[in-house]
Each structure stands twice: as structure tokens, then as C-alpha cells.
Task: structure prediction
Amino acid sequence: MRAIHLANYFVAGCIASSFLGWVASLHPMAMRAIAFLATAVFILWGLCWLLDFSVSGWLKISVNNLQALLLAVLAMVLVGGMVILCS
Amino acid sequence: MQLKMWILSGTAIVLWLAPLTTLDKKVGWHKSIQGLSLGAAIACAVSAGNIARKLAEENEIETIKTRAITADVVDEIAVSAYVSQQQRQQEAEAILNPVEHLERALALPDAEVERSEPITQNQLAEPEQNDAQNAETERAERALQLKAKGWGKAKIILEVWGVSKGGSPKYKAAEAEYRRLVEE
Result:
């Protein structure tokens, strides 16, 4: 049941990525805003990956869990982006 | 609850993929439908995730309860087994150790008696010997007290042993004991 709960949140993240892609397709300004947001998220993601020990202490989770979370976020963004690009 | 979760999960995936693949992005109302369906899909997925999390927590609580109940039952069985074993051991000791019972009944402070040995005739006769020794000690003390007061031998023997002076065997035995005790 715990795996199903995590899988549902993963699907929600994928759909949210697709939604952001859909928003980006509405207007060039929206595209810029989403691009800025995506860049910020990517930089934050990289920083979290580099400073994993500090961030894990700050979030009070283990380093393994943090790395799994970061990989899941990356996978969600990739899957959602691929779906919106391929549609 | 579980069925609702599965339906919400399936609906989320359908609402996510179906409008994006079937509808045209260039048509205005198609795009609106896509946006709405994506929003609804997010809501469905989050709801399904929350339901699944709640079910997972309930399952964990049930597991903990089951473990606690099992531990209680095991503990109760262990305690009852221990108590019954102790009772059996005490009963066996009571059966195999009548010396202890005898000592308690007679209130004799004879700690040197080995508890594991069987009862012998000597051990059974010991209380009588002790009584005789105690009586003799009392007689000796009484005789010495009376002698210190200046009483005569015949009067002491009459007072302590209850035998009047004469040639009777009782008087002779008492006289012999008097001599032995006083001279000691």
C-alpha cells in the first residue's frame, strides 16, 4: 500500500510537469516564465544533489531518501515533459 | 476505500494522457479541455495518494496491534507456565523433604540437619534428647540456686526432684544426679 501511495504521488508529479508544459505552450511569456522556473528548479536540484548531507540534516531525512527523492523529481519532470512534447 | 483509490488512480492517468494524445493543441477549446483535464488529473492523483497513505497507516497500526496482542499472549503463556512450574517444584520439594515439615511442626532450630537425607530413627529421637537435656539443665540451675541459699542436700533433692530422703532407688538416682550436677 505504501508503494501505491508513492506511485500515486509520482503520477501526480508527472501530471504537474505536463501541466506546466501545457501552460508554457499557451503564450511566449508563459514559456519564458516556465523556462525560468525550470532553470531555478534545475539549479536547486543540482545544489541539493551536491549538498545532500546538509540538506538531509535540514529536512531530517536520510541521505538515501533524499537522493531517491531527487531522482524521483527528475524522473517526474522528464516523464511529464516527454508526454507533453510527444503529444 | 481501496476501490475508490484505484478508480481515482486510473482516472488520473486517463485524464492525463487521453486529452493530450487525442485533442488538437491548435484548437482553442481543445486546449482548454486539456488544461482542465490536467488539473483534474492532478487532483485525482493527489486524492488517490492521500487515500493510499491513510490505508498504509491503518495497515501499520493493525500490524502493530497484532504484534502487541501476540506479545501479550506469549507473555501470559510464559508467566502461567513459570507459575505452574514453580508450584510443581514447591509441591515436589514438600513431598521429598518431610524433614523440613517436621522441623517446622516442632519449631526446632536444627539447621544442621541435611535436608536431602532421609529420616532416621536417631533424627526422630533428637527432640526427646533435647527435652531431657533442657530439664536436666533446669534442675542443675535450680539446685545450685538453692545450695547458694544454704539449703541442705536432702531438702534440695526433695524440692527439685520431688523425692524424700530414704533408701529408695529413686532417691539414690536423684542423689547421684545431684552430685554429678553440683560437682560439675
Notes: The mean pLDDT of chain A is 90. The interface with chain B takes residues 1-2, 4-9, 11-12, 14-16, 18-19, 22-23, 25-26, 83-84, 87 of chain A (CB under 8 Å). Residues 2-86 of chain A form one domain.
